[in-house]
Each structure stands twice: as C-alpha cells, then as structure tokens.
C-alpha cells in the first residue's frame, strides 16, 4: 500500500469511518441525481413495465432484374 503512512497522521478509528461514510454519501447523491434527472427511473421503481417496442418490418426482398 503506497499510502500506508497516512495512518501515522490520521487514526484509523476516525479515518476509515470518514472515508466509508463519504463513499456512502456520494453513492446516495448519485442515486438522487439519477432519480431527479431521468423520466424512466422513477417509473421503473414504481413498477412501470417496459412497453413493447413496435415490431421492426423485415426489409423487402430486392426486385429481380428485368429480362432482356
């Protein structure tokens, strides 16, 4: 661990909870941003099922060349 000397300055009993708590806060903020800035995510959480996409029509066969 190349940053191992940080624990000589910061007590692990304080530093680890602060680090893990900040990671949890950032994760909650990201989830809140997704909830507030998308239209599909709240519908997904409320049980809005996926709508079936319109079937894609198969491409038409190329026309046969005219005989001479």
TrEMBL record:
It comes from Rhodopseudomonas faecalis. This is Light-harvesting protein B-800-850 alpha chain. Keywords: Antenna complex, Bacteriochlorophyll, Cell membrane, Chlorophyll, Chromophore, Light-harvesting polypeptide, Magnesium, Membrane, Metal-binding, Transmembrane, Transmembrane helix. Antenna complexes are light-harvesting systems, which transfer the excitation energy to the reaction centers. It is found in: Cell inner membrane. GO terms for biological process: photosynthesis, light reaction. One of its GO terms (cellular component) is plasma membrane. Pfam families: LHC. InterPro entries: Antenna_a/b, Antenna_alpha, Light-harvesting_complex. The lineage of its organism: Bacteria, Pseudomonadati, Pseudomonadota, Alphaproteobacteria, Hyphomicrobiales. The chain crosses the membrane at residues 14-35. Its main location: membrane.
